Amino acid sequence: MNGIALALLAFGVGLAAVISALFGLAGGTIVFALLSWTFDAKQAIPLHAAVQVVGNLSRFGVFWQHIHWRVVGLFSILLIPGAWLGALFYQWFNPDLISLLVGIFILLSLFLPEKKRQNSPNWVLVGIGFLSSFLGMIVAVTGPFIASFFVLNQLSKEDLVATKSVCQAMTQIVKTLVFSLSVGFQFDVYGHILLIMGIATILGTLAGKFLLAKMSEQHYNVLNRGLLGLIGSLMIAGVLWKWAQ
Question: Structure pTM?
Fold first, then answer.
């Protein structure tokens, strides 16, 4: 990768971190889209997991006082079994099919119930954690799916970002370990790229925290849905265009 391409990738990752700190989701979708345009999907998914570890941990650092630990604890119970099973399926998917599934998944997430759920049963949160790590090994982006099931009725934007970031960080850490130990992905080969993207992510998180207080709930919802819809549509269109050639 040349210097200009790496600089553009870092800029895009930093911008995605700003969006993640504002919305609590969508940033990971953008990161995966950027990586998918630069690498094939079987490289992009592990790299996405590593970048998101940094991003979610950085949001944990700046929003730690807003975390709801009950949700985190229940969410984490079945992360490892889910990721392990997902790794088995991961081996059977080709890059184009993975990209198509990601795009479809993003668009479907827009039609999940918008009403925030209160006092979700414990088993629901455990199941969401399992599905997050399982699907994350295959389609990479699970943030929109997770967010729709969180107990968000009485949570501020900061609480949403904080709690979801910790859950996502745990998912991405497990995925990274599975990719390294089970799948055999060599993260060290991409060490310098990951370092630059990590720095860009941290800077973007700090900027996003500064801007979060200025974002209204109405703008939050409209912009989030618009970004997800655009990115999902572009990913699907890209694969269909390639198959049509």
Answer: 0.73
